What does this fold into?
Amino acid sequence: MTFLRFLRDTRGNYAMMTALLMVPLLGALALGVDYTEMSRQRQVTLHALDAAGIATARRILEGASEAEALAYAQQFFAANLRSVEASKVTLRVQLPSQQAGRETLKLDADLRYDPFFLPSFIMGTADSAESLTFSAHSEIRLQNTLEVALVLDNSGSMDFVGTGSGRKRMDLLKEAATELVTTIAQRAQQMKQVAEPVRFSVVPFSGTVNVGAQNASASWMDTQGRSPIHHENFDWSTMGAHDTNRRVEKDGDVFRKRGTGWGTEVNQIVTRFSMFDEIKRVTGTQTQQTQVWGCTQYWWGTNICRTNGWVTTTEQVPVLGPATSWAGCVETRPGTLAYDVTAPSSQHPSSLFVPMFAPDETDNEDSWRRDAMGNWWKDMTSGTDAQRQRFMPKYFQAAPLGSDFMGTDKGPNAMCTTTPILPLTDVSTTAGVNTVKKAITDMRALGATDIPEGTAWGWRTLNSAAPFTQGRPEHERGNDKVLIVLTDGFNTYYTPNSLGYNDLANNRSIYSNKGYTGVNAPGANRTRLFQNTTVTATTHTNANFTTAMNQHLDSVCEAAKAAGIIVMTVALDLSSSVADEREAINAMTRCASDSRFRRDPNDPTKAAKLFWNANGSNLADKFREIADELSNLRIVG
It folds into this structure.
């Protein structure tokens, strides 16, 4: 019975089971300790590897030699291992120059972990080991190329003194932009494995953009006057009404000279370009001798002719010279073509770019004795002020002796105030850097502000299709296209009265790159300034013009970003306490892309906007931040 009770007695089972389970329990605890420590060391090693990759990539882009880059990678990696013993980690680095593609920096790390307890519990087994190892890999792709368009405000307010600086905004901008180009160019010049690694274009803008007078005959210009907006302000029927032998008549989709009065010019096409050539001024006189049939001898003392024959006469005739030439500014294309990069084609005349030609406005003054802003030629007709403006024969009459040549921002070039666009230029050469710097230095402050127009042309300089074809193909990998847009004001288009001029011809606005707001483009029920907006087209005020242009800016920015363009924006000396300037700040903020590298300091869950709100005292610092952002674009993790 005693033996049986012993067998049935369970009071010591817990202690026995505990003793039996002690070994595996302690083993699990030890394994947990080792696993936690191994995971920590592994994470530290991974972070050190990633950090070394980014840092070494930057050193390579700065021009470090292979030996320097390898040494830097080892040092940076070791410094970031912290509590992990460097002797237990092996780093292997494969530089871009050691690969056929020359694009990728590869780093591999092997960590040997010596566990604290694990060997005691697996000793004597087939799997016993003194240490464990694991590997980590990091790969950094270096961007091959970078294309940057500097879209810079050249409006008249840029001649004002920048806040907190004592210097004009234009001078501050030139200095900051030049430093930016210099900084990026120095890094580009050290990159030897890629041809033309960084290129800059310069797009000065005010109320208009100058594409360069040398492009007058380019295939993307409307050289035959076929665009629906080309003859928008011309009434060619007035030619025949004035002189039936010097008519201008429509022939298909062009206008031609008709009649015997044109001589050898008959049937030539008439365009805005030909109008620039037609406008002449008297520059002097010259002696001209001609043979006429007349009296060669009179009866003495009388006026009765005795003998007839050929007589040589001498007279002073005027010498005509050019009064002006096209300065290079173009109008905004109509409809959806206004702010996109659709390539111009002769098959689609609306897509061609039309040269600006400011019509001569009425000679009359209003009751306040105000002139018309665009009065630059003699009307040579009567009638209403609108008829005087559209009377075409006046342009074929030479201006009198003493008339000055009408250059930029004068006569038909009114509102063409900026220097020409500089297309994408390689800055890995000294000559290229100097060319870009000169384009910046040559800028001048004059005119209104049309930010969407400048942005669109900046985008076009980055594009691979006409009008500027220097951009790399959009599908090319390893290339970033960047728009940097700076303005010190809000979008402006003006009524004549707001500038102190009359509007007797009922144009409703001054002439600029969108024509007169009181003139509908052919085939459209809204003037170009209001096309593709929700703004009331019958309200002709400066404020309404600005609202429409802000919508244009939203459209071009969204389209550019959707096409893969990185947009960086800078507002200079704009105040959020002023309504128009606050709207400009908001528009520029919306326009900007998100940073790939920085987080929003107010909301770390979001990327920082590539928008900088600058003033005269810190503009240079903001451009240095932009330089850092551009440098980061050269590296993709």
The two ends are 79 Å apart (CA to CA). The first strand starts at residue 89 and ends at 94.
